[in-house]
Design goal:
Elements lengths: L1 H4 L3 E5 L4 H10 L6 E6 L2 H11 L5 E5 L5 H7 L5 E4 L6 H6 L1 H22 L3 E7 L8 H15 L10 E7 L1 E3 L5 H10 L4 E3 L5 E6 H14 L5 E4 L3 E3 H12 L12 E3 L11 E3 L1 H4 L2 E3 L3 E4 L14 H9 L5 E2 L8 H10 L4
Parallel strand pairs: 1-2, 1-4, 2-3, 4-5, 5-6, 6-10, 7-9, 8-12
Antiparallel strand pairs: 9-11, 10-15, 13-16, 14-15
């Protein structure tokens, strides 16, 4: 994998976010020619610049994926784009749907058009489990972004650009996720606001997610959806573990920490689906991921490229891959994972 990124020019949209910044950090260990960090937040750009120091292999590009002309300039001479920029919070997208469409859908279209115009070799979209059978605006916009990546391959013509998507669940410790929220609430003495203790969610660490994203970037042939496997946990169990471990650090009695059930928020589900039953019919499986092939043969590629997935689907019926059907982490396993990934 180190050789795959060596001497490449790589653009990371949303490069100052939780996933994007980790992609940047990991890429810089693999001797790329240059990594271009593209985001609209000047302060976060300043922060990552202070963190990385003065490097000749990093460029800091202010811009918004909503602006196609800015992306066109940013993508000049680029070999690979990791498209991480997105609105990801379910309630905010639910109450601001037009804004979600502009960033998650139109922004993705702009990235694709810039990549085609500049001859970028590979573009990989970072998506979410909420794109599977979406119940909310955020999930629906991310599903459409995935379909743009796949369906554009049908009309790509003479362009050599390859497009694909990666889908995974919640990332431990990412900004705005439940664990930092619970940590802040515990530091203030509570209460912890829990939507529903039996709600289940997929979880993995940021480094794990990025490692599998890189694998997908190397494996992609065009039009695929890479669905990364991960364990699930109950929200109530995560809250209990964090209270047990963190409350004493902030000089609070864990047994007196209040938990307040606030109910499922608009657009949320009790469990999440990473891969639908319909998608599973086009999927092959490895130890770390499912690879969903395009539903229709791509005219610009070898028609046998994804043939194995379709043949397999005939003989091996599958089911959806959802957080209520996979291994649910025990409290001890949650604690071990949080310690192992240095989240606690």
């Amino acid at each position: 994998m180190n050789n795959f990124f060596e001497s490449k020019v790589i653009l990371v949209t949303g490069g100052t976010g939780s996933i994007g910044s980790e992609i940047v950090h990991q890429l810089l260990k693999m001797s790329p020619r240059v990594v271009r960090i593209f985001s609209r937040d000047e302060y976060k750009q300043f922060c990552i610049q202070q963190e990385l120091g003065n490097r000749s292999d990093v460029r800091y590009l202010l811009g918004d994926v909503r602006e196609g002309s800015r992306l066109l300039r940013a993508a000049e001479g680029v070999d690979i784009i990791f498209h991480c920029a997105a609105y990801k919070h379910v309630p905010f997208c639910e109450y601001n749907p037009f804004e979600a469409v502009k960033t998650n859908v139109i922004g993705t279209q702009n990235v694709i058009e810039a990549a085609l115009a500049q001859g970028v070799r590979k573009v990989l979209l970072i998506s979410t489990d909420k794109a599977a059978s979406p119940l909310n605006v955020m999930g629906a916009t991310k599903l459409l972004a995935e379909r743009l990546m796949s369906s554009t391959m049908h009309s790509i013509g003479s362009h050599n650009t390859i497009l694909a998507s990666v889908r995974f669940g919640n990332v431990l410790g990412s900004r705005g996720s439940v664990i930092p929220l619970f940590r802040d609430q515990i530091a203030k003495g509570g209460p912890l606001t829990i939507t529903h203790p039996e709600m289940t969610r997929f979880f993995m660490s940021i480094p794990q997610a990025v490692k599998l994203v890189f694998s997908a970037a190397e494996l992609m042939k065009g039009g695929e959806l890479f669905i990364l496997k991960m364990p699930a946990a109950r929200v109530g169990d995560i809250a209990d573990v964090l209270i047990e471990v963190l409350a004493p650090r902030f000089r609070y009695d864990p047994t007196s920490m209040e938990k307040k059930i606030i109910g499922v928020r608009p657009g949320e589900k009790m469990f999440e689906v990473l891969m639908t039953k319909e998608e599973s019919e086009f999927a092959t499986e490895s130890d770390s991921m499912f690879i969903v092939s395009p539903y229709v043969d791509l005219p610009v590629q070898d028609p046998t490229l994804h043939k194995s997935a379709r043949e397999k689907s005939v003989t091996e019926p599958r089911d959806s891959y959802s957080s209520d059907k996979v291994h649910i982490l025990s409290k001890d396993e949650i604690r071990e994972l949080l310690v192992q990934e240095r989240v606690l």
